[in-house]
Amino acid sequence: MQFKSMVISNVEVSPAYFRMRMTAPPAIVEAIPGQFVMVRVRDAIDPLLRRPFGIFDLGTFPTEYTDCGRQTFCEILYKVVGKGTEMLSSLHHGDHLDILAPLGKGFAVGDPADEKILVGGGVGLAPLYYLAKELAKNSRVRLFAGGRNKEDILCITEFERLGVETYVSTDDGTLGASGLVTEVLEKHLAEDTGRKSLFACGPFPMLKAVAGIAGRHDLECQVSLEAYMACGVGACLGCVIKGKNHSDQTPDFRCVCKDGPVFFYQDLKWD
Amino acid sequence: MQFKSMVISNVEVSPAYFRMRMTAPPAIVEAIPGQFVMVRVRDAIDPLLRRPFGIFDLGTFPTEYTDCGRQTFCEILYKVVGKGTEMLSSLHHGDHLDILAPLGKGFAVGDPADEKILVGGGVGLAPLYYLAKELAKNSRVRLFAGGRNKEDILCITEFERLGVETYVSTDDGTLGASGLVTEVLEKHLAEDTGRKSLFACGPFPMLKAVAGIAGRHDLECQVSLEAYMACGVGACLGCVIKGKNHSDQTPDFRCVCKDGPVFFYQDLKWD
Amino acid sequence: MAKPDLSVEISGIKLRNPVMTASGTFGYGKEFSDYLDLEKIGAIITKGLSLRPKAGNPTPRIVETPGGMLNAIGLQNVGIDAFIGEKLPFLRTVDTPVIVNLYGNTLEEYGELAEKLDRLPEVAGLEVNISCPNVKQGGIVFGTDPNAAAEVVGLVRRSTSKPLIIKLSPNVTDVVRMADACVNAGADALSLINTLTGMAIDLQKRRPILANITGGLSGPAIKPVALRMVWQVSQAMAVPIIGIGGIMSATDALEFMLAGATAVQVGTANFLDPSAAQTIAAGIEDYLAKNGISDVKELIGALKI
Amino acid sequence: MAKPDLSVEISGIKLRNPVMTASGTFGYGKEFSDYLDLEKIGAIITKGLSLRPKAGNPTPRIVETPGGMLNAIGLQNVGIDAFIGEKLPFLRTVDTPVIVNLYGNTLEEYGELAEKLDRLPEVAGLEVNISCPNVKQGGIVFGTDPNAAAEVVGLVRRSTSKPLIIKLSPNVTDVVRMADACVNAGADALSLINTLTGMAIDLQKRRPILANITGGLSGPAIKPVALRMVWQVSQAMAVPIIGIGGIMSATDALEFMLAGATAVQVGTANFLDPSAAQTIAAGIEDYLAKNGISDVKELIGALKI
Ligand SMILES: Cc1cc2nc3c(=O)[nH]c(=O)nc-3n(C[C@H](O)[C@H](O)[C@H](O)COP(=O)(O)OP(=O)(O)OC[C@H]3O[C@@H](n4cnc5c(N)ncnc54)[C@H](O)[C@@H]3O)c2cc1C
Ligand SMILES: Cc1cc2nc3c(=O)[nH]c(=O)nc-3n(C[C@H](O)[C@H](O)[C@H](O)COP(=O)(O)OP(=O)(O)OC[C@H]3O[C@@H](n4cnc5c(N)ncnc54)[C@H](O)[C@@H]3O)c2cc1C
Ligand SMILES: Cc1cc2nc3c(=O)[nH]c(=O)nc-3n(C[C@H](O)[C@H](O)[C@H](O)COP(=O)(O)O)c2cc1C
Ligand SMILES: Cc1cc2nc3c(=O)[nH]c(=O)nc-3n(C[C@H](O)[C@H](O)[C@H](O)COP(=O)(O)O)c2cc1C
Ligand code: FES
Ligand code: FES
């Protein structure tokens, strides 16, 4: 759906990382973890295109505290990396946005008996919070959160409040274990061989490493990808990624916006 | 000069008319009435070009009430007519602007013994307030303010506080006399034949009528013009207007931005 | 006042209003059906179709530029058979003319494709892309050489009796010459413009941003060029013109009509606002009503010089 | 690290840094002297000069468009005699190379003007505008036909021994062919691009906004087209190129250099920020220092494909 939204709050949770809460119509609660929103930052041509962000959280204000009935909202967690996110970060309570949501295919929850392993790299953590909230209702959930340094480690307390066991690592060792999140994950898997499935979001090299791990350990694994997007609805073919059957002779392109952003790792070509 | 400025206040003084006060360096006090500023509304490419506005007022905060020393400021009075002014109107205290000021040639004060007749059409009133402030120090000043309807009549009390005698007229008679400001002016001049000089700012047809009146009554008369501008400093030749000697064979173009915006009416070609 | 008449006709294709969706920016219509009422727009122009499925270019395929975007999709498409099997059934359910945008890698492919499309009753007309700057095998040559263009147009003309629209490239010295060649070879109408060829560079990586190096520039940035070309062609000859390029609002659309366009296409705007085409059509109606204009056709070419 | 070397050379004109100001957007330098230090930029290119004073077009002459602007100044200028009498004296006091942009209404005028400029020691080089889209008597023909261009260039070449830069129009099918013709006829360097021809319309008045109907599109909107053309020409031949079109920042400038430009010109950006040229030059220095690049010349044509 397309809707007008009002910024409720927009808080810097770590240097250059913001968490923004905005109003959304009640139907937003049907969004599946892993789905995303496309935000039109300004009603002007600069920036021109919408910017995609994972859904970090959803909710409804309790009626006791507002006069406006049950106001639903959604949240994004974003990193300021360029013009669009810079402009977003300067918005205040009461400013307006135009939103498309929920878009794409989210995570499949899978067998509740499986332990759920979430792997987030940097701001890739964003869609994993809403996912953790859903998964934690029926399953045991662990989070492996990695970043380059301690500033990239976000909202760990929020995950812990859900009962999620968290494992933090940073490339430079400024917080948690020192090293890549995938190294920490691999170590954990070597020790704990129970049934589990993986859910990963982060930079492409990390996802590729996670897919490799899933393959070696024969685990179910879903990854959430990023791509430059224009339409967000599968029309422009700007955001495609190679599907498992892709070759120059037999093209098999998938739209990250529509067929994804979440894919089972086996469905993609990882070269 | 070029300077960064902070919005101090931005108030709607009449429907679609805003008065904005912004910080300026101390040198701004050297600006001559009739000079203008070019405002970069946003540090983005939409809108692309700066927007020109007359200087409505200048001043310095009294040191007793601030901790920041003697903060100088300038003010503009503007009408929301399109994209740039729309965006300006949404700015708040604390927002930033980039300003070029003071630009162009202002009004020549002339002989203090002359009575000063100010003629403003709509938002053309803007530069006349700062002018009236200066003129009222040494001369008798009258203001003829016209508009299409009562919403277009701005800040009359402010002029009266300076001791200016005001004559209001509207096309539809919703405030003051009914009819064109130039008709009211003409009537006044028929009755009062003392030495006087004219200072006019408003839409081109009004200025043309004022120039005609000045010619018939043989009065000194300065008009402040508008034109689409790009550079504001006489370089792009976008804002030119025909000078008195202009013909296709002997081009005589003047830059509104640099040779004006204020001209003695005889220096221009009024066809 | 009675409701203004928004209908226009392009070489026999009757449109309820002049607002169509531009090829490649609106998929096959269905992708946008959650966001607007497909029966409130003038026509749907489908993604550039080829004889066989086509993979398109490697990624990145798109990048934002100041006031516009570059794309180098490389005409990825499902091919005519899948189009008939998978896309047409939905389009058949929508009561809005469907115009198929097509291209060939060779002269023969253009003809063969046009023949196949000619047999489909759901297809209201053909829009032939001779202007796509991304495919080296043909597009660029047909679109910038009047003789080559005339050859394609002539062949397609002989292969179909459906209304034939030729989509022109702006990357030419003299668009009127191209227009003239196409009309003489049998085009019923002209769409202009396609994208301007452009490039974007990543300073830090020292690489072109698009995998294809260059791409097609679309969006508001190109509107002045598009308006100029529509006006030039409309001044030079009497052929129905479909104006395209940076149309974001009803005002933009009406400017193209004043310049001589009978209808318009909305492209990049669909990405900013998936309901753009409907909003623009409604805005045109509003404008006519507010200004006491009873028929949008009064505005076609009504520019005063 | 030592201060990076920003100097470049265009056919013998030594520039302290690669940032020049584009003709027509910077007057005769003096207009901007309150806003920047004219001795901190690479070169000043003066407003298009003709043999006799020229009135230019009626107004409106400029209008903002999405991400850009149209201008139809019509080459209003003071003429060579007033240039020598009124403008050169100031420029003589500035220790920065002055390149004179010139145009003629006829072939002969180009030659005569070049001869006169050849005699002025203050003039470091000539930039010949064969691409202005606003003057019907000549500009447009010379700029879009390779033979006509070669003729002008050849004549000017014989009329001056100063460095000869030819400024190309983007309104052509094949910019490389134009570039080739100019270089073969004796051009030392090429400036590209001039403005794209465009148009803007006032819906309510049903009139073109510019009195001249069409005008030249400049600003960020055209940057992708400019980058593409610089890259195409730099791939095709070994001639110093000056990149122009929508440069607003040091990043933009460096992208043009990666694409093959030896230097750049800043045009429309001067209107947004009268100190733009100096800011961009300083930004280039910063970039080099931060990235450990000792010489800006390393970046020329360093794009990896
Ligand atoms: C499905 C999806 C979900 C996303 N979820 C989040 C999220 O929850 N939080 C978050 O902070 N970011 C998220 N992103 C990335 C986010 O969309 C980009 O960071 C944002 O669009 C950058 O906009 P900008 O204008 O600030 O940067 P720009 O100025 O456009 O570009 C700055 C740099 O950011 C990178 N970039 C730009 N656009 C994208 C893009 N679409 N995908 C990947 N990289 C890009 C490029 O490397 C570019 O050099 C998501 C992207 C996708 C596709
Ligand atoms: C020297 C000078 C002093 C001015 N002083 C004032 C002032 O004190 N207060 C005030 O409200 N306005 C003033 N103006 C006019 C003001 O600059 C324009 O109203 C403003 O630039 C419009 O910007 P916009 O983006 O809102 O409108 P746009 O969206 O750019 O255009 C909307 C409409 O406004 C008109 N317009 C746009 N730019 C100009 C312009 N430069 N000159 C005249 N008309 C224009 C056009 O008719 C256009 O159709 C002055 C103009 C000049 C040249
Ligand atoms: C992502 C994208 C894909 C496109 N694909 C096609 C295509 O397949 N065939 C075609 O003729 N034009 C194609 N175009 C060009 C558009 O139809 C249109 O001519 C151009 O984008 C200019 O219009 P706009 O500025 O409104 O986008 C495409 C444009 C974009 C942005
Ligand atoms: C107002 C204006 C006047 C111009 N006059 C000239 C001129 O006299 N001669 C010329 O060769 N180019 C002229 N140009 C073109 C610029 O030099 C430059 O090539 C073009 O604007 C593209 O650069 P930009 O996008 O940085 O502005 C003019 C451009 C503008 C905007
Ligand atoms: S963003 Fe358009 S198809 Fe995915
Ligand atoms: S605005 Fe550029 S010369 Fe006046």
Automatic annotation (TrEMBL), chains A, B:
Cofactor note: Binds 1 FAD per subunit. Binds 1 [2Fe-2S] cluster per subunit.
Pathway where this protein functions: Pyrimidine metabolism; UMP biosynthesis via de novo pathway; orotate from (S)-dihydroorotate (NAD(+) route): step 1/1
Keywords: 2Fe-2S, Electron transport, FAD, Flavoprotein, Iron, Iron-sulfur, Metal-binding, Pyrimidine biosynthesis, Transport
Binding site for [2Fe-2S] cluster: C231, C236, C239, C257
Any Gene Ontology biological process: 'de novo' UMP biosynthetic process
Stored InterPro entries: Cyt_c3_hydrogenase_gsu, Dihydroorotate_DH_ele_sf, Dihydroorotate_DH_Fe-S-bd, Dihydroorotate_DHASE_ETsu, FAD-bd_FR_type, FNR_nucleotide-bd, OxRdtase_FAD/NAD-bd, PyrK_electron_transfer
Statement: the UniProt record of this protein carries the keyword Membrane: no
GO molecular function annotations of the record: 2 iron, 2 sulfur cluster binding; electron transfer activity; flavin adenine dinucleotide binding; metal ion binding; oxidoreductase activity
Family (UniProt): Belongs to the PyrK family.
Protein name: Dihydroorotate dehydrogenase B (NAD(+)), electron transfer subunit
Gene source species: Geotalea daltonii (strain DSM 22248 / JCM 15807 / FRC-32) (Geobacter daltonii)
Gene name, Swiss-Prot/TrEMBL: pyrK
